[in-house]
Amino acid sequence: MTKIYIHTFGCQMNEYDSERMEAAVLEDSGFTLVRNEEDADVIIVNTCSVRKHAEERAMSYVGRHVKDKKVIIAGCMAQSLKKDLKRQFQNIHAIVGTFRFDEIADIIKKGGIYTEEDHNAYSVNIKRAGKVRGFVAIMQGCDNFCSYCIVPYVRGREKSRAFAEIREEIEMLAKNGTKEITLLGQNVNSYNDKGMNFPALLKELAKIDGIMRLRFMTSHPKDLSDELIDTMASDKKLCKHFHLPVQSGSDKILKAMNRKYTTANYTEKINKIRRKIPGCAITTDILIGFPDETDADFQDTVRLLENIRFDDAYVFKYSQRPGTAAAKMNDDVSEENKKKRVNYILDLQKKISEDINNKLTGSEAEVLVYSVRSGEARAITDTNKRVYIKGVEDLTGQTLMVKIVEARAGALTGGVIK
């Protein structure tokens, strides 16, 4: 029996794709999954191309194993680099782009290069094991063409999945014990299936028995509607958390990024969320060192963070991505300045997160327990805050009321309310 190991780099969409590949592997009686590289006959490396650093990590990983194992490079890097990878790793077993994951079992047997677009890339025929928390893609690709972003080139143009297909997959997961679903898309706000928009989709999916919570990522600020905010406020199953990437606090940089909103537009939407959904958590992405980002532009970003006070922020250094509009711009912010600015934002956000979380001490919250390790339960609030509590294994999958007794920037500690 051929032993398969899957190693994942990158975002939640990649995690979802790896889960589907795992399920496809398990459906073939000739394969078994293993949990480390040493035991594997075949290693599938599911890659990310969003940043140069992610590609470098994946390249290094492939290089360490390609001489001794059959290695398959899958995902975004496979889609973007294609034959370049074959030239660099001449004995690579297979290269599998972002549209061909459902064929992975046959590809393992045949080898080769598979990067042609397949519109049926998210078939629900694959039966995935139920976990307390699960991912479900509702769409693939992006039409926004932000000037720094390679996603439209490796994931294609926007394609929304059929509502019936999404519902079937979620119902299947619910029957297997999944309690919380995160809906995935490069821009979920653009979802449209025969006139069913994203708020309407949320309302229908919230009716599925067995699912206690629905959350989603990622939203593009330019497409965030009042209807979506009202829908989020109206149903308890819809988690009170928005991940809304702002990327920069400088209108000049936002325009160069082709983001199609201003900081004023963005701030107005944040204020609407907080008025209509009190206590809603808001997280964001920040991209530092975009071409022509001056000290003044950076200070605009600092002021934006101080003004909005996000619950958390994911901060990245800009790196040129081949084929994007920004790749034609002069990457004129030095690495030293990028690092300095990133560290400043990380320190600032840590203080803001700690202050927000400290104010939760003594409050009560409903949490969903998703795992237990060494007598400690790991749980999540509907505002996406991790809570650690003392627990036992049979608490997994249950909701509990807890009192927050300690707070840190990254997590909370709670005690079960008797």
Provide structural commentary.
There is one protein chain. This protein is α/β, with parallel strands linked by helices and 418 residues long. It folds into 3 domains: 2-114, Rossmann fold (3-Layer(aba) Sandwich), CATH 3.40.50; 133-355, pyruvate-formate lyase- activating enzyme (Alpha-Beta Horseshoe); 364-416, Beta Barrel (OB fold (Dihydrolipoamide Acetyltransferase, E2P)), CATH 2.40.50. It has helices at 12-27, 52-65, 76-81, 83-88, 104-110, 151-154, 163-175, 198-205, 226-234, 251-256, 263-276, 295-308, 335-358, and strands spanning 2-8, 31-33, 42-47, 70-75, 94-96, 112-114, 133-137, 139-140, 159-160, 180-184, 192-193, 196-197, 213-217, 241-243, 281-288, 312-317, 364-373, 376-381, 386-390, 399-407, 412-416. Strands 2-1-3-4-5-6 form a 6-stranded parallel sheet, with helices on both faces. The longest helix has 24 residues, at 335-358. The radius of gyration is 22 Å and the shape is globular. It starts with a strand and ends with a strand.
Estimate the strand proportion: 15-25%
Q: Nearest-angstrom radius of gyration?
A: 22 Å
Distance between the termini: 50 Å
CATH topology of the largest domain: pyruvate-formate lyase- activating enzyme
CATH C-level label of the largest domain: Alpha Beta
Largest sheet: 6 strands, parallel
User: Please, what is the average pLDDT?
Assistant: 93
Quaternary status:
single chain
Number of strands: 21
Let me know the CATH homologous superfamily of the largest domain.
Answer: tm_1862 like domain
State the secondary-structure class. alpha/beta
Helix content: 25-40%
CATH arch. level architecture of the largest domain: Alpha-Beta Horseshoe
